[in-house]
Amino acid sequence: MKVPRRKFLHLAACAAALPVVSRIARAQSYPTRPITFNVPFPAGGPTDAIARVMGERMRVALGQPILIENVSGAAGSIGVGRVAHAPPDGYTVGVGHWSTHVVNGAIYDLSYDLLKDFAPVALLPANPQLIMSKKNVPAANLKELISWLKANQSTAAAGTAGAGSASQISEIYFQKITGTRFTMVPYRGTGPALNDLVAGQIDLILDQASNSMAQVRAGTIKAYAVTAKSRLPSLPEIPTVDEAGAPGLYISVWYGLWVPKGTPRDIIAKLSDAAITAMADPTVRMRMTDFGLEVPPPEQQTPEALGALQKAEIEKWWPIIKAANIKAE
Ligand code: MLT
Question: Which SS3 state, helix, strand or coil, does residue 79 take?
Fold first, then answer.
């Protein structure tokens, strides 16, 4: 049977439009099943904690469960790779931070491009690090800790979450500013490293306030300074690095959500709105503040603002990290 030319062209146009129509329909009905948050560090650590607080509230906004999948190793670069290569359908969302989405690009030969292979979704809260030791290190303040480290440089050991992690970069920075030397012991995340600090297996760690706050308050470890220009409202007795004797050692670990590049814009908007709604929730804000996490102002929570911050941080940190010659283990 011969199909008239006009009808043929009409049918061809309809067929060509089908994938677009079904993509739009999928974006409109999204989400219809559980969403997975990929956390590139172990359960019980700071990245895991923020993912769980956000996920719990975003579940309400999105109307679907949020599953947490911990894919740790190589300072988060393995888990982030999983997100880069996942289908761009909004069902895999990466939770990352300053070191996974900025630092790792300067030291690992990654199978993905940190800017080109992801679409930013939302900037999440940030927190500084605390300089901490196990309980029985005989130091009453940061200056005494520095002297103790100098006297024990052949045996002192600090935990890290691997080359390129926030903990390792801040420890290298700390060594440089204070002229100290100690061995760095890599873990898959600072959750397990902190457990070893509490147990006295390692001497030292520079870790995010959110992860260590509870142990500091309980007196199971000692905190000497916070890597920020001002004290933490939730831990006001701990001095800043400037006050305590490591001037200028500022590290802020900011978090974000990313999806694989190619994820439809409507889906990114739904995820971003859910994250922004979560960060406006008084219960979430209270939990974040209690952890020492600072929620960014609303205009900085957008996908565009996260993209701009990530790019600016890459431009700032890559030259510093490359000059420091930090290598993947
Ligand atoms: C973690 O969740 O274990 C940390 O974010 C690791 C780090 O970068 O120090």
Answer: helix
166 lines ligand 1 (CB under 6 A): yes
Predicted confidence (pLDDT) per residue in 261-280, tens digit: 999 999 999 999 999 999 99
Question: What residue spans in the chain does CATH classification 3.40.190.10 cover?
Answer: 128-244
Q: Does any ligand 1 atom lie closer than 6 A to the CB of residue 227? A: no
Query: Looking at domain 33-125+254-323, which CATH architecture does it have?
Result: 3-Layer(aba) Sandwich (3.40)
Decide whether any atom of ligand 1 lies within 6 Å of the 99 Cβ: yes
CA of 186: how far to CAs of 38, 87, 149, 288, in Å?
A: 21, 31, 19, 27
In sequence order, the β-bridge partners of residue 325 are: none
Q: How far apart (Å, rounded) are the C-alpha atoms in residues 280 and 155?
A: 46
Find, among 251, 221, 208, the residue nearest to 133 by Cα: 221
Tokens of 150: 């100098």
Take residue 321 and report the two structure tokens written for it.
């990290």
| Residue ranges matching CATH 3.40.190.150 in the chain | 33-125+254-323
pLDDT higher than 60, residue 3 = no
**CA–CA separation, 111 vs 92, rounded Å?**
18
Superfamily of domain 128-244: Periplasmic binding protein-like II (3.40.190.10)
Of 47, 53, 35, 115, the residue nearest 75 (C-alpha) = 47
Q: What is the pLDDT of residue 328?
A: 74
Say how far apart CA 143 and CA 290 lie, in whole Å.
27
Residues 6+ apart with CB under 8 A from 118: 83, 84, 94, 101, 112, 258, 259, 260, 261
**What separation in Å is there between the alpha carbon of 225 and the centre of ligand 1?**
19
Residue 128 corresponds to which tokens in the numbers above?
Answer: 């500084």
Residue owning tokens 């873990």: 187
